[in-house]
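A reminder before we start the practical. When you read a complex entry, don't treat the lines as separate problems. The point of joint prediction is that each chain is placed relative to the others, so the output describes one connected object in space. Small molecules and nucleic acid strands, if listed, are placed in the same frame. In the example below there are two entries. Take a minute to note the order of the lines before looking further.
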Amino acid sequence: MIVEILCIGTELLSGITLNTNAYWLCSEITNVGGVVRRVTVVRDDLSEISSAARESLARKPNILITTGGLGATYDDITFEGLAAALGKKVVLDSRAVEMLKKSYARHKLHYELTESRLKMACIPEGSTPIQNPVGSAPAIMEQADSISIFCLPGVPSEMKTIFKEHILQRIKKSVGKFVAEELNYNTRGLTEAMIAPVLIEIVKSHPKNMIYLKTHPRGYYRKKTPQIKIQMISRGDNEKEVKNRLAAISKVIEKEIVKRGGIIC
Amino acid sequence: MIVEILCIGTELLSGITLNTNAYWLCSEITNVGGVVRRVTVVRDDLSEISSAARESLARKPNILITTGGLGATYDDITFEGLAAALGKKVVLDSRAVEMLKKSYARHKLHYELTESRLKMACIPEGSTPIQNPVGSAPAIMEQADSISIFCLPGVPSEMKTIFKEHILQRIKKSVGKFVAEELNYNTRGLTEAMIAPVLIEIVKSHPKNMIYLKTHPRGYYRKKTPQIKIQMISRGDNEKEVKNRLAAISKVIEKEIVKRGGIIC
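Here is the predicted structure of the whole assembly.
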């Protein structure tokens, strides 16, 4: 289950907004066994959006999720960008109009459907609108050959709700049973280079994606003694196997830490 | 001055690490008048890194900055990925070896130059190593036709220091004098759609990049009255003009907020 994420928003590339949406999505997808292969962030620019979407589709992920650019303002052009990438046009969708009305009614807002508001219901031809249960702009779902495309709003609460309701189950179902166990050692007296040969041996002796080993430098203790965190994650579809694998790996690493002059704090 | 950022690290796509590096770089670059056109995040995978680098180079930014993957562990393969993208190989660079030695000496560490450590000094043929003044792994600078490529470490303190010492001035010099002024209105009683036609008119009547207008939904006051933040940024090379432009725009927007039934909080 390979997922790509395309985040759309000039604010993300101007240092105005920290991209917590991508972080949250990566975490949710990884936690159920999906693999996020790439995150791309582009500005609110039609040709940038359409090129990035086209490139992502050419890499054939199982799912492409976009965030942002679904609103009523001039720079919300995700649907136009995606439509261009798919060689389609955007059309006013009556189901999306109804969803907009429902959203306004929820807040007891009696809004006229002005041009700016109807823009939110102009979706790529043939795509399926998704009710926004938090804000107003509908999301969409679109199928391009084997790729499922979801365009989600950029507002985190809206994005999260729609992801949980419409995408998470799909990923879970496709991945099947999935468990992950994690263990971390904070060590002193070792550098990444000192433990690197051990890690590479362990990684080489396991199938890809079953284990994840990573060292994180954590500066120097009293300006002299190097500190690193060693992170170990075991993944798979059998809980017992996953746990046993993690236990076996951590035992090897514990021994090697001591052997190489390090201590676990 | 168009910049692209390529962040390398499986931890960034697994929801383990929030990509604050990209956020910080975008902010620094924007603040001196540079434009970040795209951020791409890929896993520690040779073909992913080399494809992403190749694609970025084909878009011909002025500068390509990569972060992460310079360390001593098995999954630090940024140099190999970049070299593959450039049709080069990595070679042990004697200057980089000296830099490594200098870094260890700084911490009074008497390390043997093992294979794992020397890996950090194996850089793309023809590139220039850059001393890491905080950690050990050297960064590199590489010129590919008109594109300057910088590979920076993923550890934020190391990345920031090298960026400030080697890249920031280059961007500043190329951009020339640059000022930006920002003003924000928190409003109540308006939706994005209600102010959208005003924003589009203002944006249309100014050259691209001189102004940035953006509305941010801020939920509902007492569950009923919509709240939005209107963000206005004026940019240019003349302080007086930038300020006057912002003042003129904010005056128009103030009037329109009131006219459309909103208030500024």
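Discuss with your neighbour: Chain A touches chain B through 68 residues (CB under 8 Å). What might explain this?
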